[in-house]
Amino acid sequence: MISPHKIILLIAAASATAAAAAEDPTEAEAHGNKSDALKLKLVAIASILTAGGLGASFPLLGRKLAALRPENHIFLMVKAFAGGVVLATGFVHILPDAFRSLTSPKFPFSGFIAMAAAIATLMVDTVATSFYGNAHPSKDEEVAGDADSVSGPNGTTQSEILRQRIISQVLEVGMVVHSVVIGISLGAARSAATIKPLLIALCFHQFFEGMGLGGCISQARFEWLKTVVMTVFFSVTAPVGIGIGIGISTVGVTVEGVFESASAGILIYMALVDLLAADFMSPRMQNNVKLQLGAHTSLLLGAGSMSFLAMWA
Hints:
It is found in: Membrane. The protein has helices at 4-23, 26-60, 73-101, 109-135, 158-188, 192-220, 224-247, 253-280, 283-286, 289-309. By secondary structure, the chain is an all-alpha fold.
């Protein structure tokens, strides 16, 4: 039989334990951090969705604003800036993370996967161009412009438009994969202090990437419905990634590293070959020193701005 003094001691011990638990702020603080982090993630979904949509839509305004039409120099400057952004995204943002996720003392898997993805993109680019060219044998036929067309002074050939459509579709694939991955990274973050700078960086990140994609979509001259679908699809991918990140506590680093490596290879190829080389090596730029200077400056500003964001993203 338990004596009265032992009962008193047990009650006192239980009371002391309960008081200590009540005074210990660790559990309450952790709950508060999770709540604050979730609120920031919901804000991030709306903010990044808006930033991506605005960035992708901005070059498309060229169909209505004369200053932003593809035949004007301003549009070329914007495209060079966006090309620098995409290039820095692949080299500075994605590839280093991929190397950290797929570290191996025996073989550099990240570099190999990035190289394979770039080669695969080249093959797809070549085969798709050949396929569309054979499907449309009248390569020199000029496209008849409508009220919303953005044809240059000499007209735009069918083959050029088909080429731009392939470029925009392949570029969107690389950007979509990357957007989902970075969205997952933000959604899986547990600290509000980590999310705040990442939220700001990713808003700029999606805006600039959207500008690069929107420039290609504008030159491709898709029907309005497909233009809207491609723009919306790019805009929602990062928020979807955030939602996935919220639903999972950890992301498999190996799978993430594979996706990051492939995405880096695709974006680096697209930035150098399709976004930059096609314009920088064109007679239009080769014969205009002022245009070359402006385009090179825009390229460096785009790459520098995106590289600077790597301090937080």
